[in-house]
Amino acid sequence: MSAIRRLGGFRFWSLIPFVVVAAVFGIYPFLRVVQMAFGHVSVRGGGMTFEWRGLENFHRALEDDLFHHSLAISGIFVVATTVISLVLGTALAILTDRATKMQNVARNVLVWPAIIAPVVVSVVWVLILNPQIGVLNQALSTLGLPEQGWLGDGVGAMAAIIAVDVWHWTPIVYLLIYSALKGIDSEVLEAASVDGANRSQTTRHVVIPMLLPAIAAAAVLRVVMGVKAFDEMYLLTRGGPGDSTTIISLLIRGIVFDEVDLGYGSAVSLVTIGIVLVMAVLIFAVRPILRRRA
Amino acid sequence: MGIQRRSLFKAGALGFGGLATGAVLSGCGNNEGSLGDDSQPTATGANGAVTAITVATATTPWLDGYKAIIAEYEKATGVKVTLRDFPFDGLQTQQVNAIQQQSNAFDVFQVNEGWVGQFYSQGWLRPLKEIDPDFAWDDGIADFDGLSRWDEERQSTSPDGEVVALPLNGNIHVLAYRKDIYDELGLTPPTTWDEAITNGKAAMEAGLSKYGYVTRGQGAPGGNSVTFDFSCVLHSYGAEWINDPGTDWTSSIATPEGEAAMAKYLELLEIGPANPQTIDQAAVIAAIQSGDALQGHMVVAVAPQFEDPDKSNVVGKIGYAEVPGGPKGPRPISGAWTFGVPTGLPDDRSKAALHFMQWITSKEAQTSWAQKGGVITRADVLDAIGDDQPQLAAMRDSLPDVHQGIRYPFGQAVLQSTEVNLNKIVAGQSGITDGLKAISDDIDAAVSKAGLGK
Predict the structure, then answer these.
(1) ipTM score over 0.85, yes or no
(2) How far is B221 from chain A (nearest CA, A)?
(3) Does B122 touch chain A if contact means CB atoms closer than 8 Å?
(4) In this structure, are strands B329-330 and B80-86 parallel, antiparallel, or unpaired?
(5) Per-residue pLDDT tens for B154-172?
(6) Looking at chain A, which residue has its C-alpha nearest residue B222?
(7) Nearest to B17 by CA among A229, A245, A84, A223
(8) Which of the four CATH numbers 1.10.150.320, 1.10.3720.10, 1.10.150.110, 1.10.10.10 does domain A70-293 have?
């Protein structure tokens, strides 16, 4: 038996495109980031020069108050957007599943926000929230109420970007949960009904437990999306006022592209990746427990 | 065994997921907007002469005028110019990528005042005398406080430095004011910040203006927003981000002068739109265009937008003057653009690029550009135009007082701090003393990290 046949024949070859793409666009850039994180990279004259600095960039990250602040801001953002979108997405999936009229329309309309480009979403929300020309303040003004600086104070700006992100990406959670909901064996629900459970009890004690693995998967997805979030904040608040909404992606952008400090930017990126991996591992560790409970 | 294999796959999937996440984040590393394949090679004619060049530029309010003058260059020389425009901060990234990857994607770089220290100190622009040993500075071109010259020893721009660029757009601060309201109230353009505030309050009390003064309060990390507009108040009180780049790298912003300047800036913002911490340049322009604001200081390049009947309610009603001053007199800030030749470009392309730059800054081209409303960089042409274009007349009158913007090699690190901390002060998130102290500390750290100030 040839080595290739032992490796699985077509199954082996079909992986090649994926491996090549992953190597070129994933592994190679990642290894470059790892390399740069351990040095000082300067772009002088005609190209890049690398100077080994060991753990210096990581020590700097540990002492950088702005990095700590950005991590905290990102933590708040990720937790809030993940929890809210999971609750909303799950509720919408269950409600849509139970709808007796216009179910198809609801299913379609609910996913619309997710297919809009983030830049367009940002422009739409700028036109809603802008203190001078925004629709919200125009409405308040028409009603004789004082205008508000929706993006003008730290809490308001953070609430605004959370709201925009939840509005934009809850449909993804909805789709995942709704698919899982449709996969639940109807006999299980019928059995619950035969046992005398009403709709509320069935939802609480049967449906939601069975959805927990899907909810955990959606949670991982939303955590990663939350850490990657960039467009809306960049266009809506630019990290302000002050640094109230400077989430980690905005900070990394500034270090890498404005200060052209590639070494430190890489180190900050690596630390962030490490934190995301830890969170992902924790959620995956909890998943089997959830599955057993389900 | 099966369980082990499944676990292995899971671990692998998780690991690869992590790597994929890393790849997404590392996409920020050095590949954003990579020019790579879509760079346009410069064409060379049969006799070896360069027949086409690619010029990088930003999407600015003066882009249309630049295109028009480039069309004249193409007509006069037969050289085809591909103008590639990018958003303000995207331009910096594209040019850094071009240098980093040595792609020679552009024949001409365009450098904003705020990037000057970075581009010059890193050797990303080729000294013009190296391209053409006969190159000599044309005395008709305004100096903008040494904007185009780099002194390697001092690590700063200097009138005595080596010429590495030419000024492309002479954007400096001017005061734009409603001359109709000023006339109605019998006021004269303010020469001090206090007069500006008094005039602003008078117009508001008379019900002639919703806002007495408008200027930027929003911070834009990566940009130069509130820092730029505050600088002309700061320097008019005698405080400096860096006292004397090249010899004294200490900062004097956390001083009584700096605090007085900040307090005055807050007074100006108080008679402007609510939530000044959200006011960016677009909002400033809109406040003037709508007729809501009496006055404000801004770059001269925005003036044509007030005279566009499709966008403005105040066509023909805006007057221009030098910015008001503090105890040290007026200090309009240079927010000019320069253009230069990237390092690493082949000699023939470098020479073609330099020819393009010299043509654009020639007296003939600048006169034509000024007639199209361009913010030109030749003092002799500004003198010749006289008062025909009021914004250029104000610019001409301001040139002797121009103060350089942030041009240090570590300028971006300074801006990262100033944009955030000034915005915090404006938003009331930190007090004047604490906010300026935070900036001063960050400047000290940036100076130290750059190995300067010893």
Answers:
(1) no
(2) 7
(3) yes
(4) unpaired
(5) 999 998 899 999 999 999 9
(6) A258
(7) A223
(8) 1.10.3720.10
